[in-house]
Every structure is written in structure tokens, then in C-alpha cells.
Amino acid sequence: MKDIILLLILQLVYVPILTLRTIMLVKNMSVLASIMGFLEALIYVFGLSIVFSGEQSLAQMVVYALGFGVGLLVGSKVEEKLAIGYITLQVNTQEKNEELIDVLRKEGYGVTVFEGLGRDSKRYKLEILTKRNKEDKLVSLIEKYEEKAFMISYEPRKFRGGFLLTNMKKRIKHKKEEH
User: Fold this and answer.
1) Which of 99, 94, 96, 89 has its CA nearest to residue 148?
2) What is the pLDDT of residues 53-85, one digit of tens each?
3) Do residues 138 and 105 touch, judged by C-beta distance below 8 A?
4) How many angstroms separate the CA atoms of 81 and 155, rounded?
5) What distance in Å separates the CA atoms of residue 179 and residue 175, rounded to the nearest whole number?
């Protein structure tokens, strides 16, 4: 019985590490991914040694698989909370909302505005790059000023230069001074 409980615990640790390692590889965070890979391999070998030592019971194998499935849920929730990386939010509006643009810039967001032609009229696209963990706050702020805005969020793989990095450092320094 203790082997079954240990297997479940190992899988609940192993699979979230596997999930985070994969995400870190995709985001070019190879040093952290390597550390996670090392931990992942240790736990994996230890868990398999329990499953394949002595008699393999069906219960052990089922718990191993169950732990894997639940571990995937845990790993995805952990990653969601960490929100590693950046997102680009494209906001499409029917009018050029100067108030929204000003508020976003005052909040420290870099906003680039494009004018284009929609099917029936002019449209405006705001492009905003921010940290993933700020996405919900940004969307809420936009919705206060543009309820009908069409928004698309995606993750850029690489970027350099521009307003974001310099301004983020200023924003962090300013918030520390307030507290």
C-alpha cells in the first residue's frame, strides 16, 4: 500500500515538472529546462523502479497512470499561475479611442496604433506587448473603455528593443518607491 501512495505522490511531482520543462524549452529557457529535466529523470527512474520491482500489481500500474493524468492537470494549473513569458494583445476598435490609448500609456503599456479599412469603415488596431501575468488586468482595463473591442492574444517567441523593456524597469522602480 505504501508503494501505491508513493507512486501517486511521485507522479504528482514528476508530471508538473515535465510540463514546466517542456514550456521552458519552448520559451528558450534552456538552463531552467535542464535543471527540470534532471529532476524529472530522477523521479521517473525512482518511480519506475518501484513499479518494476518484485511483482507488478495492476493497482500499481493504474495508480501510476492515474497519477500521470492528474499530474498533467496540476502542471497546467501551475503553469497558468506562473504565466511565464509575454503576450501581444491586438485590440480592434471601430473608433480611435484616445482616452483608452492615454490610459494604457499612463499605466505603462507600450501601445502602437494602426488605422485600417474594415468591410464597412475604418478600424483601429492597438498592439500591446506585456507580461502574461498582466493579461487579465490589461483586458479588464480595455473593457472599461471599449466594451465592443475585438481582442486577440498571442505569445511572441522573440522580441528586442522598443518601449517595453525600458518602461517595465521604470514601472517596477516606481511601484517599489510607492510602497
Assistant:
1) 94
2) 766 678 877 888 888 899 889 988 888 888 888
3) no
4) 16
5) 7
